[in-house]
Specification:
The protein is mainly α. Helices cover 62% and strands 5% of the residues. It contains 64 helices and 15 strands. The chain has a five-stranded parallel beta sheet, with helices on both faces. Helix 40 packs antiparallel against helix 41, helix 44 runs antiparallel to helix 45 and helix 48 runs parallel beside helix 50. The longest helix has 22 residues. It is elongated, with a radius of gyration of 44 Å. The chain starts with 17 loop residues before the first strand and ends with a helix.
């Protein structure tokens, strides 16, 4: 500005700051320009300053503005001080650092001690935490050297103080910060006595640094400045002096700040001023030297503006040396560089992990469990595993890949974790066949994960490689049951696990993190302090090592952190004792909170600490810095000072910041919440804040604030928020299922209406989430009613909505409505494979097999003609086509399709892949239907073996296959084995899915059939009763599965002679089948056939004939020659022929038997067991007609078929012997008849319960044969038969009456039965229960016959019964 003395102070009345720059600098957006913009300062061109000088006043800035302030706020002039000599954008090439340098910043702090306590504290406690946070994001190790403490007493006694200072300067190159005030520091000054100690320290240092001999009269601080900044070339470690100087920052304190701060005569003031005139001179010369050099310099700072100045220059230095844009390429590290530098390696633990990872596949031999890293709270489980993985990554082992997926406390949803893991694995191994659909079922998640691992294992074995999968932090999970228990042998899985104190030896692979011994503690303390170039005196080291609490690694690390960042030489002893007085980690955190309060509350004059950490502890998914700052009410400077101290104790979540350890949250609870209302006050504060911000930014927090508030109040506010149309879509789409379920469980009822969803314009994701939640609160039937109502609203038209609605309708058995929705959606656009797959499944369940087949073939064609040609997906649809063929009993086609699917999947995924289980199971079903029971057992054995290999021997799928095995043993009359299998399967399904799972109902039904077949009707009844209850609770009494169970109960009632009740049950079942499956479905026909059986037993032959013919008309299809429907016709015709035989219409009976045999032979072959049954019944016709040779021929062929198919001990052998006995009796060969009938009884006694009704039938025949020759034996046979009939059917049964009459005709007395058979106890009671089970359902329909004609009306009835309407 020239030489004229100018003072602006009289003119700058408002103290408005103008930043004078050039257009070029502004365009470059230098650090100073950015700072000015952030401060809302007037940014003007140079001519503004010239015109102000010329006019001797502050002119209007308008014409000179480059950038006006963005708000009506101005910054006072004394708060903005420029940094001379620091322009990162203008550095020359010689001032830049080697690009291959270590990613490390270590800053040396040089200053005198007594007068610079505040500056050093500001750096260490407030600035450096902020810099550390930036460095961590960029994978840069950050540390500093602050020698307020760290030079031990022994070093001081050995006169090594100067030596250590200069060595530390070298350690930190090129980063150097110097503060200079009005003190020169420790030196030899004229007029003062000679300092022998200082002289000895110079002498010691000169041995390594001879150049200091020229500066013996200089202070230690100046020596640091000379070596660190003015003449860095003196160090052999300095590769670039210019780069070193450009990173040496000097801060000269404004001398007036001391005058303002301390009054004259204040004893503290002497610590800030120099007594020696010689020291004054040296200090002035030093400052002039620094000013004359082109070094970054702030000349005239005050404590008020120092924070911002330091932060700006040091942040820009980090930006220069480690730019943010290169950080992404450097951040593959699993742990920060600071953590690597301060990690204490437990050799035995690392060796155990190494051994597990490196074991060869040959050594492992099959599936192996994961290895568990076990430890208590704060033992370093996650840290150990991450560091071991980092070492493994850096080793770059050629035959190994590593995938790590860390688990934090804000991400504990099994589905989300599994999904993330599958995405990482798919990316690494180029897998396209795997996706994890949403499910709450851990079994389904586990199965999908194992499928992924098997596909990877298949690839790895080809490449001769292995995979390391690690889930650090898995100990946060309440359970790992969603993970496979064992993994393929080329995959090593590593988990962390809490030490619960139980016996760990039962765990197959584990390594326990031991408490630290004294040697471990000492090693870690030295390692950690070395990072900051510090050492502890022996007495402090002894205190730390001998304290029992420091055996916990986390505890010790926290103590050391506090000593490094919060302590000085003056208070080190107090600090060590202070922190070590805490017995637990939680107490230690509470102690730190108290320190924060003393430091930061005093500055802010508020409850900054308690409010901020209290709010953070109440966070659900994390809070941003901006949110915490807004909620704190602190000024920017106050906040910055506290925040970066706090940030050191946090981790970054997907949304914001969370405490890094649960002990922090516990400490907050204990210190601030337990005995005050602060928790509720802070929650109310949070709620008020989130009400003022956009919902899109608060959606991961606001609902949980209301949830926590509802714990001390009612849930009305939470309910209102969750049902508000304005938020309903966003909240349900943004939160996980587990989170939503927790919220709605607190509310207590799911009260969202279709109107709420329509007004809120719910997205597809929101609709899906809402319906998933509704499943937990409503039966499948009421949910289906809700879905039907939704589907009628215009807002929810479209393929994606239709698919969701159809999915839930299909689950409830509303096949017609579900199919209509999918077909309607398919008309407007090309349907996805997902839509077609569901539509095909519905058609299959409706019995519309040709339509299902067409849909699946359409899917196969689409895949085959697509560019990707997903072979795995094609195989899946071949599997579905095989199921359709099997349902139609086109068994050869089914086996061919299953073989094709097996070939593709085993090639793509390997021969031990999980998906092959379903193929084995379906092939087993084919063989079971064909009565090839040994082959069926072999296929089921493959499935079970595969599941056992995968550690799924106690899982749902294993139980389902075991049920199929039980069915086979039931078919072969190996009843004890079948019973054991059913009971094992039932136990597995109940333990893995719960006792009310629909699959439990399926097993109970099958088990009931076994007991019914054994004649154990009273044991079968409770199973059917429980099955009905499960189905009604899960679905409704309108579901087709309910009808299946009713049909079985009808069979039970028919067997027990309760024919009226049987008719009611069958009628009820048929009505449900008609509504859900349609009146043309085979299930509907089956019930007509069963009703015919009742009428036949009652002698109502005309009614029986009507029902059989009705069943035949339903299933008859002239285009299906050899399908399942024709098999049904063959069986129904056999029953119709029985009616004609009973009516003595033998010619017609034989004709129909022949038709039946012809159909069954075409479909199943001439040796099928069903042919044996037809031949036996036809033999009865021949016996009645006296054509005994023809009868004998039929029975011989039937015996041979039964013996070949079922073995000599099957009940059907007994039935055949019964009919042979009847033939012998008809021919007058009484002796042969008795022999054959006794053989029949022997077989049936062995195969069936001795109280089985079939046994009674043989005894009646035997009694009739014996009555002509031996009345005593005849009476014995009749009485034995009567006893069975009494316990099976009661005294009202027609057989009881007939046998009683036979006894009387022989002059015998009818016995009175008093003893009870345990398995039949309470017969009359259970019959009453049985009849009452269906009474309410029958009554409902009896009053609403019109309703049954409308498929949707049944849902209305359900809603009425549930109180919804």
């Amino acid at each position: 500005l020239g030489s004229a003395p100018i003072s602006f102070s009289p003119y700058i009345t408002n103290k408005t700051t103008h930043y004078v720059t050039t257009q070029k600098e502004f365009d470059q957006q230098t650090t100073r320009v950015v700072n000015a913009q952030r401060k809302n300062i007037f940014i003007v061109v140079e001519s503004f300053l010239r015109d102000c000088v010329a006019s001797q006043s502050v002119v209007d800035a308008g014409p000179y503005l480059i950038s006006p302030p963005t708000a009506d706020t101005h910054v006072t002039a004394d708060s903005f001080v420029s940094i001379k000599g620091w322009n990162p954008s203008a550095l020359e090439s010689k001032q830049t650092l080697n690009p291959n340098r270590k990613r490390e910043i270590k800053i040396f702090i040089s200053s005198t001690f007594r007068d610079m306590k505040d500056e050093r504290s500001l750096l260490v406690s407030k600035i450096f935490p902020q810099l550390n946070a930036i460095c961590q994001q960029r994978n840069v190790a950050f540390s500093f050297v602050d020698l307020r403490w760290g030079i031990t007493e022994s070093n001081a006694k050995d006169d090594k103080a100067i030596l250590k200072c200069l060595e530390h300067v070298d350690e930190c190159r090129p980063y150097f910060i110097s503060f200079l005030g009005e003190r020169y520091g420790w030196s030899q000054n004229d007029g003062f006595s000679y300092d022998e100690k200082l002289a000895d320290s110079f002498k010691k240092a000169a041995q390594k640094f001879p150049w200091i001999n020229k500066y013996k009269d200089r202070s230690v601080s100046e020596l640091e400045i000379i070596y660190g900044a003015l003449h860095p070339e003196l160090s052999p470690l300095c590769k670039s002096p210019e780069a070193n100087r450009s990173r040496s920052f000097f801060f000269f304190r404004d001398p007036l700040s001391i005058t303002k701060r301390f009054e004259l005569g204040d004893p503290e003031r002497k610590n800030y001023e120099e007594d020696s005139s010689d020291a004054h001179r040296k200090l002035r010369e030093l400052k002039e030297t620094i000013r004359a050099r082109d070094l970054p310099l702030v000349d005239g700072y005050s404590l008020e503006n120092l924070h911002e100045l330091l932060l700006n220059c040091l942040t820009s230095m980090i930006d220069l040396d480690f730019p943010a844009d290169e950080a992404a390429a450097q951040c593959s590290s699993l742990v920060s560089r600071n953590e690597i530098s301060a990690y204490y390696r437990n050799e035995s633990v690392h060796k155990a992990l190494q051994t597990f990872a490196s074991s060869s596949t040959k050594q492992r031999k099959g599936l192996q469990p994961p290895i568990l890293v076990i430890g208590g709270e704060g033992s370093g489980k996650t840290t150990t595993l991450l560091h071991w993985l980092q070492e493994r990554l850096e080793s770059a082992i050629q035959d190994e890949r590593i995938v790590s997926n860390s688990i934090t406390e804000d991400s504990l949803c099994p589905h989300s974790i599994a999904n993330d893991l599958i995405e990482k694995l798919s990316e690494n191994f180029n897998l396209s066949a795997f996706s994890l659909p949403y499910t709450q079922d851990n079994d389904e998640i586990r199965t999908c994960l194992f499928g992924v691992f098997e596909a990877i294992d298949f690839q790895l074995k080809k490449l001769n490689k292995r995979l390391i999968v690690a889930l650090p932090g898995s100990h946060h999970l309440p359970s790992c049951s969603w993970l496979p228990e064992k993994f393929p042998d080329s995959i090593r899985v590593f988990l962390t696990c809490r030490d619960t104190g139980k016996n760990n030896s039962k765990k197959p692979n584990f390594v326990i993190l031991p408490a630290w011994r004294a040697s471990d503690k000492e090693s870690f303390i030295k390692l950690y302090l070395k990072l900051y170039s510090k050492k502890l005196d022996e007495r402090y080291m002894k205190l730390l090592v001998q304290n029992g609490a420091t055996a916990n690694p986390l505890y010790l690390k926290i103590v050391l952190d506090q000593l490094v960042h919060m302590s000085s030489f003056d208070n080190l002893s107090i600090s060590v004792s202070h922190y070590l007085s805490c017995k637990t980690i939680q107490e230690l955190f509470k102690c730190i909170f108290a320190d924060w309060e003393a430091t930061f509350n005093k500055t802010s004059g508020s409850n900054l600490v308690a409010d901020t950490i209290g709010i953070l502890s109440l966070s659900h998914a994390g809070l941003t810095e901006e949110e915490l700052f807004s909620l704190s009410g602190a000024s920017e400077n106050e906040w910055n000072s506290f925040f970066y101290t706090l940030k050191y104790f946090t981790i970054s979540s997907s949304r914001g910041l969370l405490f890094y350890h649960t002990s922090l949250t516990d400490a907050v609870q204990s210190r601030y919440f337990d005995e005050s209302n602060l928790r509720d006050e802070l929650l109310c504060k949070l709620a008020r804040y989130f009400e003022t911000v956009p919902l899109s930014t608060s959606i991961r927090e606001f609902p949980f604030v209301l949830l926590k508030l509802s714990e001390s109040t009612d849930s009305s506010r939470l309910r209102s928020f969750m049902t508000n149309p304005a938020s309903i879509s966003l909240v349900h789409e943004s939160l996980s299922h587990e989170e939503l379920l927790g919220i709605w469980s607190r509310i207590g009822d799911f009260v969202i209406t279709t109107s709420d969803m329509a007004v809120g314009n719910c997205t597809v994701g929101a609709v899906r989430a809402i319906l998933r939640i509704a499943e937990n609160f409503h039966s499948t039937a009421s949910l289906a009613l809700f879905v039907l109502e939704l589907s009628q609203r215009n807002q929810f038209r479209g393929t994606e909505y239709s698919f969701i609605f159809a999915y839930y309708l299909e689950k409830n058995g509303n096949y017609v409505e579900a199919a209509e929705l999918l077909e309607l959606a398919s008309q407007n656009s090309a349907p996805s494979l997902e839509v077609l797959s569901l539509l095909g499944a519905i058609k299959k369940k409706q019995g519309l097999y040709q339509e299902a087949s067409d849909i699946y073939n359409r899917c196969c064609d689409r895949i085959a003609t697509s560019e990707q040609k997903d072979r795995s997906a094609l195989a899946e649809f071949k599997l579905l086509l095989g199921d359709v063929e099997r349902k139609q009993e086109n068994y050869e086609n089914a086996l061919r399709l299953y073989d094709e699917a097996y070939g593709a999947l085993s090639t793509i995924l390997g021969e031990t892949h999980d998906k092959l289980v379903e193929i084995y199971r379906n092939i087993g079903l084919v063989y079971k239907k064909r009565c090839q029971y040994d082959k069926a057992k072999a296929e089921y054995a493959k499935a079970l073996h595969l599941l056992e290999m995968k550690g799924q021997g106690k899982r749902k799928r294993y139980g389902l296959v075991l049920t199929e095995v039980a069915d086979v043993y039931r078919k072969t009359s190996e009843f004890d084995t079948a019973r054991g299998c059913y009971e094992s399967a039932l136990r597995i399904i109940e333990e893995s899915c719960g006792k009310s799972h629909p699959e439990v109902a399926e097993i109970l039904n099958s088990y009931g059939i076994l007991l019914k077949k054994q004649g154990k009707y009273s044991e079968a009844l409770p199973l059917y009763q429980r099955s009905l209850n499960i189905i009604e609770q899960t679905f409704s009494h309108e579901h087709y599965k309910y009808a299946v169970c009713l049909n079985n109960i009808g069979d039970l009632q028919r067997k027990t002679g309760d024919f009226d009740a049987a008719i009611r049950s069958y009628t009820e079942a048929q009505q449900i089948f008609g509504i859900t499956l349609g009146e043309s479905h085979t299930e509907y026909a089956e019930v007509s056939n069963n009703i015919g059986l009742v009428y036949k037993k009652q002698g109502k032959y005309i009614d029986a004939q009507r029902e059989y013919e009705k069943a035949i008309r339903i299933v008859f299809d002239p285009h299906e020659r050899y399908s399942a429907v024709n098999i049904k016709i063959g069986l129904f015709l056999a029953n119709l022929a029985d009616v004609f035989r009973k009516e003595k219409n033998y010619a017609k009976a034989l004709t129909v038997y022949n038709q039946s045999q012809e159909i069954i032979t075409r479909c199943l072959g001439p040796e099928d067991i069903e042919i044996a049954d037809v031949r036996q019944n036809r033999a009865l016709v021949y016996i009645d007609q006296g054509e005994f040779e023809l009868a004998r021929e039929e029975l011989e062929i039937a015996s041979r078929i039964a013996l070949t198919s079922l073995g000599k001990n099957h009940p059907k052998i007994g039935y055949c012997l019964h009919k042979k006995g009847m033939l012998a009796a008809a021919t007058g060969d009484t002796k042969q008849a008795v022999t054959l009938l006794n053989k029949s009884l022997k077989v049936l006694y062995a195969a069936l319960d001795k109280y089985h009704p079939e046994v009674a039938d043989v005894l009646i025949t035997l009694g009739e044969v014996q009555s002509s020759s031996n009345s005593v034996q005849a009476l014995q046979s009749f009485r034995s038969a009567l006893e069975i009939i009494y316990f099976c059917f009661g005294t009202d049964h027609y057989k009881y009456v007939n046998v009683s009459d036979s006894i009387k005709s022989l002059g015998g007395s009818v016995p009175v039965f008093k003893r009870q058979v345990a398995s039949m106890k309470g017969k009359e009671d259970w019959r009453k229960v049985l009849n009452s089970l269906i009474a309410h359902n029958s009554a409902t329909r009896a009053d609403s016959k019109e309703t049954t004609r409308n498929p949707n009306a049944q849902l209305v009835l359900v809603a009425m019964a549930s109180g919804l309407i």
